[in-house]
# Entry
Amino acid sequence: MQRIFFSNLILMVLLNLLVKPIALFGIDATVQNRVGPENYGLYFSLLNLSVLFNILLDLGINNFTTKNLAQDPEKIKKYFRKVFSFRLVLFSAYSIFTFSLAFFLGYSGKPFYLLSFLMLNQFLILSIAYLRSHFAGFHFFKTDALISVLDRFLLIIIGGFWLFSSYTPEQIKIEDFIWIQTFCYASTLIIGLCILVKHLERPYLQWDFSFGISVIKKSWPYALLIVLMNLYTRIDGVMLERIHSNGAYEAGVYAQGFRLLDALFMFGMIFAGLLFPIFSKQLKISIAVVLDLVKTSANLLLGGIVIIVFVTVCNASLILGWIYDDIQDAIGPFQFLMLGFFPIGMNFIFGTLLSANGNLKILNSISIFGIIANISINIILIPEYGALGAAIATFTTQGLTAIAQFIYCIQKFKIPKKPNGILKFLLLTTGLYAVSSFYASSTYLMLIQIISGLGLIFMLSLIDLKAIKKLILTSK
# Structure
């Protein structure tokens, strides 16, 4: 099982490393530089608004498909036409809900127009994910990996030509970028359908009311969890644009700092997505195996994150300067957002463990607490501190929810309280802090931090190559 986890992790990470950073920093960041912080800030706010309730487009259908297709391929094939019909109904409900919220928040005119395309993009993204759930269920892992990056690859080709062609005017419009995204998502969906259709029965639409109700009954706790998590991780951009006196600009500044966190978040989601089915299966077999995997994955992920945090926080001006034209206001927000990546990494491990064990009630309770904390801190800090206040709110909220999940996991799964584990992370942090302070003025600080961090990780046995090799060779 662990062999499957690590081999798929390597494939997915390599493909995403090749494609998504180029799309994010080469295309998306260039668009922000060209359209300016105010225009991009409005786009960023509307994008977050379109994401807040996008789980209404899925309601657990993708997880349902992956799980049941692996168990009974012939039966689940017949569900495709029912599910796709149901998704159209869900899109209607999502559209009504999101437009109503936008109207309540005071959006009108052009923002409504842009929001409509961003909502369509969310439908296309979740539909692509639905196709990928079939590829995963059929164990077409290479196809799944390729489809996972195809939309970003198309964006690099088409967006690159649009941005850097001599035929493109210097003053571009943010709506052009949104339309290009729509084309890339739609093309990926069509290509995925063409690949998948030969493995299914005739893919015509078929509405089944009882099937839709059954899906909703089974998936609403999971859907609620995703909505709540989206609220306390995505509401910052919306609140910035709405309640600050110069909201569009502040949202654009926040987006500059958020972009790298979002890129790293995607890789963390790959990690969590591969852990989830393994946790789910092993929890029914052996809690000892689960705890071993928790330890190995936590050391691997969190050890790397500690290095990333030090590198990004200490070299914020340098890193942002590589990407953006104007960075002065973005440095502080970026540093706090990157500090928040460590608790986010904890959530990838312990939140996934609780989700796999079906502890959705406690996860929902923690998320509600996170929403209350996040909105409260934002209301206090945003009017005076803008993007910096929103970044502090994100860091604080992620820290509180991570601690809550970690403590509950210790109690629920009787995780041994070994001071050595925490001590190793404290030594890693202290060592990197000492190195960063001593070489603070060095031109090679970033390289020194990476080398020192990796050396400390292996010295402290946070990454044990023998243990990982044993897991891969002995797993079945």
About this structure: The mean pLDDT is 85.
